[in-house]
Amino acid sequence: MVDLGTKIASLKLKNPTILASGLMDEDAGSMKRIINCGAGAVVTKSIGLKSRGGYANPTIVELEYGILNAMGLPNPGINEFGEEIKKLKRLNAPIIGSVFGSNSKEFVELGKKMQSYGANALELNMSCPHAKGYGLEIGSDPRLVKEITSKVKESVEIPVFVKLSSNIANLGEIAKAAEKGNADGIVAINTIKAMKIDIELRIPVLANKIGGYSGKAIKPIGVRCVYEIAENVDIPIIGVGGVTTGEDALEYIMAGASAVQIGTAIYYRELDVFKKVCKEMENWMNEHSVKKLSELIGAAHL
Ligand code: DHB
Q1: Ligand 1: which atom is nearest the Cα of residue 73?
Q2: Angle at CA 126, nearest 5°, toward 259 and 256?
Q3: Does residue 185 line the site of ligand 1, with CB under 6 A?
Q4: How many CB atoms lie within 10 A of CB 72?
Q5: Is 129 a pocket residue for ligand 1 (Cβ < 6 Å)?
Q6: Is the whole-model pTM more than 0.85?
Q7: What tens digit of pLDDT does each residue of 143-191 get?
Q8: Quick one: CA dihedral 173, 179, 183, 184, positive or negative?
Protein backbone atom coordinates (compact mmCIF):
# COMPACT_ATOMS: atom_id res chain seq x y z
CA MET A 1 0.00 0.00 0.00
CA VAL A 2 1.37 3.43 -0.94
CA ASP A 3 0.51 6.60 0.95
CA LEU A 4 -0.99 9.30 -1.29
CA GLY A 5 -1.81 11.58 1.65
CA THR A 6 -0.50 15.14 1.44
CA LYS A 7 -0.50 18.33 3.47
CA ILE A 8 -0.78 21.90 2.22
CA ALA A 9 -0.10 24.16 5.17
CA SER A 10 -2.56 22.91 7.83
CA LEU A 11 -4.87 21.34 5.25
CA LYS A 12 -4.69 17.55 5.23
CA LEU A 13 -5.75 15.72 2.05
CA LYS A 14 -6.31 11.97 1.71
CA ASN A 15 -4.94 12.20 -1.82
CA PRO A 16 -3.35 15.01 -3.88
CA THR A 17 -6.11 15.47 -6.51
CA ILE A 18 -8.20 18.62 -6.13
CA LEU A 19 -11.07 19.84 -8.31
CA ALA A 20 -9.84 23.02 -10.07
CA SER A 21 -11.99 26.15 -9.92
CA GLY A 22 -14.47 26.74 -12.73
CA LEU A 23 -16.30 23.51 -13.43
CA MET A 24 -18.68 21.27 -11.48
CA ASP A 25 -18.32 23.67 -8.57
CA GLU A 26 -21.23 26.08 -8.73
CA ASP A 27 -23.45 24.24 -6.25
CA ALA A 28 -23.22 21.80 -3.37
CA GLY A 29 -24.65 18.87 -5.37
CA SER A 30 -22.00 18.90 -8.08
CA MET A 31 -19.15 19.39 -5.58
CA LYS A 32 -20.45 16.41 -3.55
CA ARG A 33 -20.43 14.30 -6.71
CA ILE A 34 -16.80 15.22 -7.36
CA ILE A 35 -15.83 14.27 -3.81
CA ASN A 36 -17.61 10.94 -4.27
CA CYS A 37 -15.54 10.48 -7.44
CA GLY A 38 -12.38 10.52 -5.34
CA ALA A 39 -11.18 14.14 -5.20
CA GLY A 40 -9.03 14.91 -2.15
CA ALA A 41 -10.51 18.47 -2.02
CA VAL A 42 -12.62 20.80 -4.16
CA VAL A 43 -12.23 24.45 -5.14
CA THR A 44 -15.42 26.46 -5.71
CA LYS A 45 -16.15 28.57 -8.77
CA SER A 46 -14.61 32.03 -8.25
CA ILE A 47 -17.09 34.14 -6.31
CA GLY A 48 -17.30 37.94 -6.12
CA LEU A 49 -19.29 40.37 -3.98
CA LYS A 50 -22.18 40.81 -6.41
CA SER A 51 -23.90 38.47 -8.86
CA ARG A 52 -22.62 38.61 -12.45
CA GLY A 53 -24.16 37.15 -15.58
CA GLY A 54 -20.83 36.67 -17.37
CA TYR A 55 -20.11 37.23 -21.05
CA ALA A 56 -22.46 36.54 -23.96
CA ASN A 57 -22.19 33.22 -25.80
CA PRO A 58 -20.13 31.64 -27.28
CA THR A 59 -18.12 31.32 -24.06
CA ILE A 60 -16.39 28.01 -24.75
CA VAL A 61 -14.92 26.16 -27.73
CA GLU A 62 -13.12 22.84 -27.98
CA LEU A 63 -9.88 23.12 -29.95
CA GLU A 64 -7.57 20.47 -31.34
CA TYR A 65 -5.38 20.19 -28.24
CA GLY A 66 -7.47 21.68 -25.44
CA ILE A 67 -10.36 23.94 -24.50
CA LEU A 68 -10.67 27.72 -24.81
CA ASN A 69 -13.12 29.57 -22.57
CA ALA A 70 -14.07 33.04 -21.43
CA MET A 71 -17.08 32.79 -19.12
CA GLY A 72 -16.66 36.28 -17.60
CA LEU A 73 -16.79 35.32 -13.92
CA PRO A 74 -20.50 34.43 -13.82
CA ASN A 75 -21.51 33.80 -10.21
CA PRO A 76 -24.42 34.39 -7.84
CA GLY A 77 -22.50 36.70 -5.48
CA ILE A 78 -21.05 35.70 -2.11
CA ASN A 79 -24.25 36.00 -0.05
CA GLU A 80 -26.24 33.62 -2.28
CA PHE A 81 -23.30 31.25 -2.61
CA GLY A 82 -23.09 30.89 1.18
CA GLU A 83 -26.06 28.52 1.09
CA GLU A 84 -24.15 26.08 -1.14
CA ILE A 85 -21.05 26.03 1.10
CA LYS A 86 -23.16 25.50 4.20
CA LYS A 87 -24.69 22.38 2.61
CA LEU A 88 -21.19 20.92 2.21
CA LYS A 89 -20.36 20.60 5.91
CA ARG A 90 -19.54 17.15 7.29
CA LEU A 91 -17.88 15.96 4.09
CA ASN A 92 -14.61 14.08 4.31
CA ALA A 93 -12.77 16.43 1.93
CA PRO A 94 -11.84 20.09 2.42
CA ILE A 95 -13.66 22.86 0.54
CA ILE A 96 -11.45 25.65 -0.81
CA GLY A 97 -13.40 28.85 -1.46
CA SER A 98 -12.19 30.73 -4.56
CA VAL A 99 -12.78 34.48 -4.52
CA PHE A 100 -12.08 37.37 -6.88
CA GLY A 101 -12.09 41.07 -6.07
CA SER A 102 -10.69 44.30 -7.44
CA ASN A 103 -8.93 45.46 -4.25
CA SER A 104 -7.89 44.28 -0.79
CA LYS A 105 -11.12 45.49 0.84
CA GLU A 106 -13.21 43.29 -1.46
CA PHE A 107 -10.93 40.28 -1.02
CA VAL A 108 -11.09 40.68 2.79
CA GLU A 109 -14.89 40.82 2.82
CA LEU A 110 -15.13 37.79 0.53
CA GLY A 111 -12.57 35.83 2.55
CA LYS A 112 -14.31 36.51 5.86
CA LYS A 113 -17.66 35.43 4.43
CA MET A 114 -16.25 32.23 2.90
CA GLN A 115 -14.73 31.39 6.30
CA SER A 116 -18.00 32.08 8.12
CA TYR A 117 -19.87 29.72 5.74
CA GLY A 118 -17.45 26.91 6.59
CA ALA A 119 -14.84 26.95 3.79
CA ASN A 120 -11.68 25.18 4.98
CA ALA A 121 -9.28 27.35 2.97
CA LEU A 122 -9.27 30.26 0.53
CA GLU A 123 -7.95 30.54 -3.00
CA LEU A 124 -7.41 34.17 -4.02
CA ASN A 125 -7.93 34.42 -7.78
CA MET A 126 -5.21 36.78 -9.01
CA SER A 127 -4.96 35.21 -12.43
CA CYS A 128 -8.18 35.24 -14.47
CA PRO A 129 -6.72 36.12 -17.90
CA HIS A 130 -9.44 38.37 -19.31
CA ALA A 131 -11.71 40.06 -16.70
CA LYS A 132 -11.24 43.83 -16.65
CA GLY A 133 -10.06 45.07 -13.23
CA TYR A 134 -9.74 41.56 -11.77
CA GLY A 135 -7.47 38.53 -11.80
CA LEU A 136 -4.33 38.91 -13.84
CA GLU A 137 -4.47 42.72 -13.70
CA ILE A 138 -3.92 42.35 -9.93
CA GLY A 139 -1.69 39.30 -10.08
CA SER A 140 0.95 40.98 -12.22
CA ASP A 141 1.69 43.69 -9.63
CA PRO A 142 3.90 42.41 -6.77
CA ARG A 143 2.86 45.29 -4.49
CA LEU A 144 -0.84 44.49 -4.86
CA VAL A 145 -0.27 40.74 -4.50
CA LYS A 146 1.56 41.27 -1.19
CA GLU A 147 -0.94 43.83 0.11
CA ILE A 148 -4.06 41.80 -0.69
CA THR A 149 -2.56 38.57 0.63
CA SER A 150 -1.45 40.11 3.93
CA LYS A 151 -4.76 41.93 4.49
CA VAL A 152 -6.72 38.69 3.91
CA LYS A 153 -4.31 36.75 6.14
CA GLU A 154 -4.87 39.27 8.96
CA SER A 155 -8.64 38.78 8.65
CA VAL A 156 -9.11 34.99 8.52
CA GLU A 157 -7.84 31.92 10.34
CA ILE A 158 -8.14 29.39 7.50
CA PRO A 159 -5.17 28.83 5.13
CA VAL A 160 -4.90 31.29 2.24
CA PHE A 161 -3.61 30.20 -1.17
CA VAL A 162 -2.84 32.63 -4.00
CA LYS A 163 -3.57 31.50 -7.57
CA LEU A 164 -1.05 32.92 -10.04
CA SER A 165 -0.85 33.10 -13.80
CA SER A 166 1.80 32.01 -16.29
CA ASN A 167 0.96 35.08 -18.38
CA ILE A 168 3.63 37.18 -16.65
CA ALA A 169 7.37 37.69 -16.98
CA ASN A 170 8.19 38.07 -13.27
CA LEU A 171 6.61 34.91 -11.85
CA GLY A 172 9.33 34.34 -9.24
CA GLU A 173 8.97 37.90 -7.96
CA ILE A 174 5.17 37.62 -7.78
CA ALA A 175 5.38 34.30 -5.92
CA LYS A 176 7.80 35.88 -3.44
CA ALA A 177 5.38 38.80 -2.97
CA ALA A 178 2.63 36.31 -2.03
CA GLU A 179 5.01 34.60 0.40
CA LYS A 180 5.93 37.97 1.94
CA GLY A 181 2.22 38.63 2.37
CA ASN A 182 2.17 35.37 4.44
CA ALA A 183 0.34 33.20 1.91
CA ASP A 184 0.07 29.58 3.05
CA GLY A 185 0.56 28.31 -0.48
CA ILE A 186 0.69 29.16 -4.18
CA VAL A 187 -1.57 27.71 -6.85
CA ALA A 188 -0.15 27.74 -10.40
CA ILE A 189 -1.23 28.12 -13.15
CA ASN A 190 -4.51 29.52 -14.46
CA THR A 191 -5.61 29.19 -18.09
CA ILE A 192 -3.38 30.82 -20.70
CA LYS A 193 -4.50 33.85 -22.75
CA ALA A 194 -5.42 32.58 -26.20
CA MET A 195 -7.71 33.11 -29.21
CA LYS A 196 -9.48 31.08 -31.92
CA ILE A 197 -10.55 32.63 -35.22
CA ASP A 198 -13.21 31.15 -37.49
CA ILE A 199 -11.61 31.60 -40.92
CA GLU A 200 -14.90 31.27 -42.82
CA LEU A 201 -16.62 33.98 -40.76
CA ARG A 202 -13.32 35.87 -40.32
CA ILE A 203 -14.08 36.62 -36.68
CA PRO A 204 -12.93 35.38 -33.26
CA VAL A 205 -15.11 32.48 -32.09
CA LEU A 206 -15.54 33.64 -28.48
CA ALA A 207 -17.85 36.60 -27.89
CA ASN A 208 -15.14 38.04 -25.62
CA LYS A 209 -12.58 37.41 -28.43
CA ILE A 210 -9.83 36.45 -25.96
CA GLY A 211 -10.14 33.52 -23.60
CA GLY A 212 -8.14 31.14 -21.44
CA TYR A 213 -6.68 27.93 -22.87
CA SER A 214 -6.64 24.76 -20.77
CA GLY A 215 -5.92 21.05 -21.12
CA LYS A 216 -2.97 18.81 -21.86
CA ALA A 217 -1.34 21.37 -24.22
CA ILE A 218 -0.59 23.73 -21.32
CA LYS A 219 0.94 21.12 -18.99
CA PRO A 220 4.62 21.80 -19.86
CA ILE A 221 4.03 25.49 -19.15
CA GLY A 222 2.43 24.69 -15.80
CA VAL A 223 5.25 22.32 -14.85
CA ARG A 224 7.84 24.98 -15.73
CA CYS A 225 6.01 27.58 -13.63
CA VAL A 226 5.74 25.26 -10.60
CA TYR A 227 9.45 24.44 -10.92
CA GLU A 228 10.33 28.15 -11.11
CA ILE A 229 8.11 29.04 -8.14
CA ALA A 230 9.64 26.21 -6.09
CA GLU A 231 13.08 27.74 -6.66
CA ASN A 232 11.83 31.07 -5.28
CA VAL A 233 9.63 30.28 -2.25
CA ASP A 234 9.47 27.90 0.72
CA ILE A 235 5.67 27.60 0.96
CA PRO A 236 3.68 24.68 -0.54
CA ILE A 237 2.63 24.79 -4.19
CA ILE A 238 -0.49 23.33 -5.82
CA GLY A 239 0.11 22.52 -9.50
CA VAL A 240 -2.62 22.98 -12.08
CA GLY A 241 -2.74 22.95 -15.88
CA GLY A 242 -3.35 19.93 -18.09
CA VAL A 243 -3.22 17.20 -15.43
CA THR A 244 -4.95 14.26 -17.14
CA THR A 245 -3.11 11.14 -15.93
CA GLY A 246 -1.21 9.94 -12.87
CA GLU A 247 2.03 10.51 -14.77
CA ASP A 248 1.07 14.17 -15.35
CA ALA A 249 0.38 14.57 -11.64
CA LEU A 250 3.76 13.02 -10.74
CA GLU A 251 5.51 15.45 -13.06
CA TYR A 252 3.98 18.38 -11.17
CA ILE A 253 4.85 16.74 -7.83
CA MET A 254 8.49 16.29 -8.89
CA ALA A 255 8.56 19.93 -10.06
CA GLY A 256 7.69 20.89 -6.48
CA ALA A 257 3.91 20.66 -6.08
CA SER A 258 2.39 19.12 -2.94
CA ALA A 259 -0.92 18.52 -4.73
CA VAL A 260 -2.50 19.04 -8.16
CA GLN A 261 -5.79 20.39 -9.43
CA ILE A 262 -7.78 18.76 -12.21
CA GLY A 263 -10.34 20.53 -14.40
CA THR A 264 -10.39 20.04 -18.18
CA ALA A 265 -9.49 16.34 -17.83
CA ILE A 266 -13.02 15.74 -16.51
CA TYR A 267 -14.19 16.39 -20.08
CA TYR A 268 -11.76 13.82 -21.51
CA ARG A 269 -11.83 11.14 -18.75
CA GLU A 270 -15.19 11.71 -17.01
CA LEU A 271 -15.94 12.47 -13.38
CA ASP A 272 -13.97 9.62 -11.89
CA VAL A 273 -10.76 11.02 -13.40
CA PHE A 274 -9.80 11.71 -9.75
CA LYS A 275 -9.88 7.98 -8.87
CA LYS A 276 -8.15 7.11 -12.15
CA VAL A 277 -5.30 9.60 -11.59
CA CYS A 278 -4.81 8.31 -8.01
CA LYS A 279 -4.73 4.69 -9.20
CA GLU A 280 -2.16 5.55 -11.88
CA MET A 281 0.02 7.37 -9.33
CA GLU A 282 -0.22 4.35 -7.00
CA ASN A 283 0.76 1.95 -9.79
CA TRP A 284 3.80 4.05 -10.69
CA MET A 285 4.84 4.31 -7.05
CA ASN A 286 4.48 0.55 -6.54
CA GLU A 287 6.56 -0.14 -9.65
CA HIS A 288 9.26 2.23 -8.39
CA SER A 289 9.12 1.13 -4.74
CA VAL A 290 8.08 4.58 -3.51
CA LYS A 291 5.96 4.29 -0.38
CA LYS A 292 5.03 7.91 0.28
CA LEU A 293 4.09 10.69 -2.13
CA SER A 294 6.01 13.14 0.07
CA GLU A 295 9.27 11.44 -1.02
CA LEU A 296 8.66 12.71 -4.55
CA ILE A 297 7.79 16.36 -3.89
CA GLY A 298 10.43 18.50 -5.59
CA ALA A 299 12.45 15.43 -6.62
CA ALA A 300 13.39 17.04 -9.96
CA HIS A 301 15.30 19.88 -8.28
CA LEU A 302 19.01 19.08 -8.37
C1 DHB B 1 -13.00 32.78 -15.43
C2 DHB B 1 -11.84 32.34 -16.03
C3 DHB B 1 -10.70 32.17 -15.27
O4 DHB B 1 -9.54 31.71 -15.79
C5 DHB B 1 -10.71 32.47 -13.92
O6 DHB B 1 -9.61 32.36 -13.20
C7 DHB B 1 -11.87 32.89 -13.34
C8 DHB B 1 -13.01 33.04 -14.10
C9 DHB B 1 -14.23 32.99 -16.21
O10 DHB B 1 -14.18 33.21 -17.41
O11 DHB B 1 -15.31 33.00 -15.59
Answers
A1: 11
A2: 25
A3: no
A4: 19
A5: yes
A6: yes
A7: 999 999 999 999 999 999 999 999 999 999 999 999 999 999 999 999 9
A8: positive
